[in-house]
Amino acid sequence: MANTNPTTRRILVLGSASLGTALVLTAVAALASATAAIILLVVIMWLAVWRIAGANRRELASIKKQFDSSRARYETIIDRLCGAVGMRDSLTDEESQRLSRLASALVRQMRVPTDQVKLVEQAAALRDVGKQGVAQSVLLKEDDFTEQDWAEMKRHPEIGYEILREISFLTEVADVVRCHHERFDGQGYPRGVAGDSIPLAARILAVLDAYVAMTSQRPYRKTRSHEDAIQEVLRNAGTQFDPEIVRAFTEADRRGLFANGRSARIEPQVSVVSEVK
User: Fold this and answer.
1) 214, 261 in Cβ contact below 8 A?
2) Which of the listed residues 89, 91, 171, 195 has the most CB atoms within 10 Å of its CB?
3) Which residues of 166-199 are buried (b: 16+ CB within 10 A; e: fewer)?
């Protein structure tokens, strides 16, 4: 039986145990009584359930340990990828934490799967990875962009997509990164997709990213108030932003889940970075 696969071994063990139990119960019923056989059957079944439950607990603990280890490696890879392409220097922890909390609150309000929070956070961290493929003369240009400059800059979502889709566990993130400059009305780039053709996480990120950028300090413009930023998001519902997500965003704010824009009442899962460009 040494070369038998685990499934076959399990079947053989269960079959042997069932046969043995049947023989024992038959013998007890013949030598004692049917009542004694029933009592013995109950005891055997209880012991079997107890052993199965114990095995399940050990298996679940092992799976959880493997999951936690995989998640830690996963997040480390994302963090190192961001560092490798120089995406950490200009982004603050405060903004990272705000976007994470806002994403948690908004997803809770929308009642969509919580994995969308993680997807939003990861896409926010990696959304500009494609700028590594944009000409430095454009990235560092201080004058107004020409049409050629804009055409070059607008390549970065596709470049980011091509980079990330080669990593098996980042394929969903790659799709969101590809669409992070798309607009709900189809006037965005790089592909001009619209409505539900844009991944849900990308539509959520668009609203949160804009809000966080407007209400954060920038050296080149005045910081907007929470109320002003909310009104700006509302003004762009149906054009730049998905109106359903804007509705959920404003409802979450009305319920106080955003604490007037300072923070959300839900603890962040992972710190991320985000800024609208």
Assistant:
1) no
2) 91
3) eeeebebbbbbbbbbbbbbeeebbbeebeeeebb
What Cα–Cα distance (Å) separates residue 243 from each residue in 203, 251, 274? 10, 12, 21
**Residue 114 corresponds to which amino acid?**
T
Token pair listed for 238: 């149906």
Q: 108 Cβ partners below 8 Å, 6+ apart?
A: 252, 257, 266
Across the chain, which has 277 residues, the per-10-residue mean pLDDT values are 58 62 64 66 70 73 60 61 52 65 84 84 83 86 87 92 88 93 95 95 92 79 87 95 95 80 41 33
Distances from the Cα of 270 to the Cα of 72, 75, 76, angstroms: 11, 9, 11
CA distances from 142 to 131, 138, 149, 216, 218 (A): 16, 9, 12, 22, 16
Determine the distance from the C-alpha atom of residue 148 to the mean position of all C-alpha atoms in its chain, rounded to a whole number: 35
CB 161 within 8 A of CB 177: yes
From residue 162, alpha-carbon distances to 178, 261, 274 in Å are 9, 35, 20
Q: What is the helix, strand, coil percentage profile of the chain, to 5?
A: 65, 0, 30
- CA dihedral 33→39→40→45, nearest 10 degrees, is 150
Residue 92 is inside which H or E element, if any? none
Residue 230, by phi and psi: left (phi above 0), alpha (psi -120 to 50) or beta? alpha
Asked if the bond preceding 219 is cis, omega within 30° of 0, the reply is no
